[in-house]
Amino acid sequence: MNIGISSACFFPDIPEKAVDFFVENKIGYAEFFLNCYSEFSIDFIKKLKKNLDTVPTEIFALHPFSSGFENRLFFSEYRRLFSDGLEIYKRFFEAAAYMNADLFILHGADRYSSISDNEYFERFQEIDRTAASFGIRLAQENVANFKSRSVDFIKNMKNQLGDVVFTLDIKQCRRASQDVFDMAKAMGNSLRHIHLSDSDASHDCLPPGTGSFDFGKFFELIDSICDKTPSAVIELYKKNYSSPSQLVSSLNYLRSWSL
Questions:
Q1: How far from 25 is each of 42, 54, 206, 225, 245, CA to CA, in Å?
Q2: Which end of the chain is more exposed for a tag (fewer CB within 10 A), N or C?
Q3: Is the entire prediction scored with pTM above 0.85?
Q4: Spatial separation of the C-alpha atoms in residues 117 and 103, rounded to whole Å
């Protein structure tokens, strides 16, 4: 399994700081959060890529700042907003393609949305088709405050769509009181990307190797259910670790398990 680090670990520092860290430490694999509209400009992406390519660094996935209002853009009753949302996201998909990212991550509709699951799946499929026209796959992430929080929703989505891909976030399973192993099994062979973190009895998000999560058992399960090994990144919040060197230690720890 190829394991890297997400630029989300450095927020609210700008993505350039993450690039400096990735290059300096020769991380090799990354996921990028872009945190405002201007960061999706091709000129900005070119600057990031120029620095990243000195290592080089493979970009697994791109995550947009707009996840918080995808519910409104794509899953409201006002259909014209959906069309406008697609036009906005075309710029984002273009940026992802320029970075050679395979995946673009979607949170989707919030957990209290009145939209039916079937309508959700139809709209997701339309967004995915648009992403595919740029050579990108749209990856549904499980997120605690969104419809995708539950194992049952993910199972239903996979059964209904068939050709769908997922991002599994371990900490979001904890926050939604969903078993991470059950979530992985629900995503099954459609699992393409993983957000890794650790935990203990008092903390739901810790650097891998500092908590009690059984990564050995987890990686064994992933190997058994996925024909194509997913990519993975450490994804924490800045408050969850003490120094950037701890990210490197966690990365080495994870790579030792996944060899």
A1: 25, 12, 21, 32, 9
A2: C
A3: yes
A4: 23
Rounded Cα distance between 36 and 170, Å, is 25
CATH, range 3-258 = 3.20.20.150
Residues 52, 94: contact at Cβ < 8 Å? no
Report the b/e string of 191-222 with b at 16+ CB within 10 A: bbbbbbbbbeeeebbbbbbbbebebeebbeeb
Q: CA 222, CA 15: separation in Å to the nearest integer?
A: 30
- pLDDT tens-digit profile of 80-119? 999 999 999 999 999 999 999 999 999 999 999 989 999 9
Helix (H) or strand (E) holding 93: helix 79-98
Question: Identity (one letter) of the amino acid at 35?
Answer: N
**Cα–Cα dist 148/134, whole Å:** 25
Place of tokens 């064994």: 220
